[in-house]
Structures are given as structure tokens and as C-alpha cells.
Design a protein that fits this description.
This protein is an alpha+beta fold and 384 residues long. The protein has one domain: Beta-lactamase. It contains 13 helices and 15 strands. It has an eight-stranded antiparallel beta sheet with strand order 2-1-15-14-13-12-11-10. A three-stranded antiparallel beta sheet has the order 5-9-6. Helix 3 packs parallel to helix 8. The N and C termini lie far apart (54 Å).
């Protein structure tokens, strides 16, 4: 081989090596495909839940596409029936956003405004501060109203109705702080939002929500707790006792007045995705009202009154928490805890990514899971 031909061959080899390195570099910088993300999520979920114990339903979407979905563990430890896509879970405090949106629908129709004073709709609430507290304060956990429900009667704690849970309001003498000044997580104040919906519409709260939200979003497996009905596909919640035995703790069995407007919805992971799609597509609310509901109203991080969800860069909006962690897009989310149930429902609105994990056990660290999901989403370029 003469020197000229050898030179050409060497150049060709060098070019091939360079091309391989470029392709390899580009490949490493490209986002992981959905299947890879799905596999990583499946590994995460399987590391949390065993086959013959309570577990979870998980689904994550990007735009309208499912990028990860899985069902793990047992829905009913007596029958050993597995968790499936049709299994319903109590979503607990995630229910609050549905109550908020129910009233926002009335605001959209010009029938209500969140700036209205609570006292104007409740003439038997005579303390002066009721003329300072607005419905927006209630929805943003910044009303200053204390949770003074009687916890001495165990039976009432477990079986309290909405009316029982709000019965202490007329006797409240003073606020903990000026309305809108601080964050303090209080459950029964959401009953007052449900009350105003009933007064304006003349409908029972659960019937109104069914018509205006569940039906409109085609959430066929979503409903409010009814002590007289237990659908076949409803899971049981579980806690572990001191002997390591799973003990059934459903809605209304181990709870502090978890009433319907603040914690009474049962749903499936798939239906929660329909809910997120309904919000994103403007099926229930216009963009202006929805974006207003997502706006941070009060800092959770700096609250001296309550440590629930108290982490850095965290705020409360109206029925949603807002997470502004640096180097991540803004996350809007809510958690839920009731008896043996845990729920985590989150979204990155700017990326159209939605996350739902519903558990029928309360022994797992939810926030470490949430952080790991965020990491996987970012590594897979599903969020920016």
C-alpha cells in the first residue's frame, strides 16, 4: 500500500471514530424514552410494595400520553384481591381542591366571589372577625380560625357529620392571627365553602359536585364517601400494629373528622388523570380562574402555627400546595392522609406532567418517593 492510500485509510478510520464518539455523546444527552422512564418507575414502586401486602396505584402522564403506570399489592387483605386500574382509594385531603373548584365554577357564572365575607353568609356567626374572613382565606388555609373541635368524644370524632364538625364555629371567640397573615392547616373550614355552594344552588353538595365535576370530567369511578354503600372495587386502608399485623383502618375508622368537603372523595388513579385533563383543557374552569387558584397565597415554609408540609420553598394556594424548588419548574400538588390511606397528586403545569400515587397503607415515607419521582422526571427530560 503506498503512502497516499495509507493516509486516506487513516483519515477514514479517524472520521469513523469521531462519528462514533459524536453519536455516543448525542445519545447520552438525549432524554430517556418513555419505556425507560416507565421501567425506572416500576422499579421504584416495586421496591416500596410487596405482592401480598397493601400497595398502590400509580400513573404519570405527559400531555395526554401515559408515560408510566402500575398497580401494586393488595386492595383487600381478607379476600387478597389485587389492586387494579379500577380500584378506588380515599384521596383524603386531595378532596379540598374539588371543593375549591366547585365554588370557582359558581364564581365563573357570576353567582359567587371568593372575596365575599364568610359572616355575610352565616348570620349566626356574630363575632366581629367573621366580617374580616373571606372565602379566599378559607381556601388558602390562612383564615386564622382555630380548629377547636371536641376531641374528647371518640365516637363523635369517628362518625362526625359535616354539620357536627362545623358546630363549634359560632363559639369561636378570636382568631389565631389576622386573616391572610399566616398559614395554618385547618380541615373544617372547607365545610363552609361547601355550605355556600348548597345555599346558592339549592343542591346537596355531593350532588352538585357529581354534576359539575365528576360527570363533566367523565370520572365514573369517583364518588364521595357514603357509610351505607361500599362499591365492590373500593380498597381498604391499612396500618401496621405493634405485632407487625395489617389492621384495616378505612375512612371514618381512625380519623379526626375527615368530612366530605375536606377529605371525603374516593377515586382511581385513572380518574385523577381525567380530573387533571379536565382542568388543563378548560372543561370545568377557564384558564384565568384556574391560574388564580394556583397562585401562592401564603408561605408554608415560614409558618409559626403549623408544620404540615412545612418544607423549603413551599406555599399554599387555594386547595393546592405550591413547590418552588430551585432548578425545577413550579409544582402544584396536594397530599392526603386518612386512616390507612395516603395520596400524592401533583402536576407541573408548565410541562403538562401529572403524577398520581394512591396508597392503601400509611407506613411509607411519601415525600422521599415524591423527590425520587421528580429526579427521574428531570433525568428523563419529562420536566425542564
Amino acid at each position: 500500500m503506498n503512502m497516499k492510500r495509507l493516509y486516506v485509510v487513516l483519515l477514514a478510520v479517524i472520521a469513523c471514530i469521531a462519528a462514533v464518539e459524536i453519536i455516543s455523546s448525542v445519545s447520552k444527552s438525549m432524554p430517556s424514552n418513555d419505556k425507560t422512564f416507565s421501567e425506572r418507575m416500576d422499579s421504584l414502586m416495586q421496591s416500596r410494595y410487596g405482592e401480598n401486602e397493601p400497595g398502590a396505584a400509580m400513573i404519570i402522564t405527559k400531555n395526554d400520553s401515559v408515560v408510566a403506570e402500575g398497580y401494586y399489592g393488595i386492595a383487600d387483605m381478607k379476600t387478597m384481591s389485587p389492586i387494579t386500574e379500577n380500584t378506588t382509594f380515599n384521596i383524603a385531603s386531595v378532596s379540598k381542591q374539588f371543593t375549591v373548584v366547585g365554588a370557582l365554577i359558581l364564581q365563573q357564572r357570576g353567582l359567587f366571589d371568593y372575596e365575599e365575607l364568610v359572616g355575610n353568609h352565616n348570620p349566626d356567626y356574630t363575632a366581629d372577625f367573621w366580617k374580616q374572613v373571606t372565602f379566599r382565606h378559607l381556601a388558602s388555609q390562612s383564615s386564622g380560625i382555630p380548629d377547636s373541635r371536641d376531641r374528647s368524644n371518640r365516637h363523635n370524632m369517628i362518625y362526625a357529620t359535616d354539620s357536627m364538625s362545623k358546630s363549634y364555629f359560632p363559639d369561636v371567640e378570636k382568631l389565631k392571627f389576622a386573616p391572610g397573615e399566616c398559614y395554618d392547616y385547618v380541615n373544617p373550614t372547607f365545610i363552609l365553602i361547601a355550605d355556600v355552594i348548597e345555599k346558592i344552588t339549592g343542591l346537596k353538595f355531593v350532588d352538585y359536585q357529581q354534576k359539575e365535576i365528576f360527570d363533566c370530567c367523565e370520572m365514573a369511578n369517583t364518588y364521595y364517601f357514603n357509610p351505607n354503600e361500599t362499591p365492590m372495587n373500593q380498597s381498604h386502608g391499612y396500618v401496621i400494629d405493634s405485632n407487625g399485623t395489617w389492621v384495616e383502618k378505612d375512612y371514618g375508622e381512625e380519623t379526626f373528622f375527615a368530612t366530605r368537603p375536606d377529605g371525603g372523595i374516593y377515586s382511581t388513579a385513572k380518574d385523577m388523570m381525567k380530573w387533571e385533563k379536565g382542568l388543563r383543557d378548560g372543561i370545568v374552569l377557564n384558564d384565568s380562574l384556574l391560574n388564580d387558584a394556583y397562585q401562592p397565597r401564603v408561605s408554608v415554609t415560614d409558618s409559626e402555627w403549623c408544620d404540615y408540609q412545612q418544607r423549603a420553598n413551599t406555599y399554599y394556594a387555594m386547595g393546592w400546595f405550591v413547590d418552588k424548588t430551585p432548578n425545577y419548574p413550579v409544582k402544584v400538588y396536594h397530599t392526603g392522609d386518612n386512616g390507612g390511606y395516603q395520596a400524592y397528586v401533583a402536576k407541573y403545569p408548565s410541562c403538562n406532567v401529572c403524577i398520581t400515587v394512591l396508597e392503601n397503607r400509611n407506613d411509607k415515607d411519601r415525600w422521599s418517593m415524591a423527590l425520587e419521582i421528580d429526579r427521574l422526571l428531570k433525568e428523563s427530560r419529562l420536566i425542564d
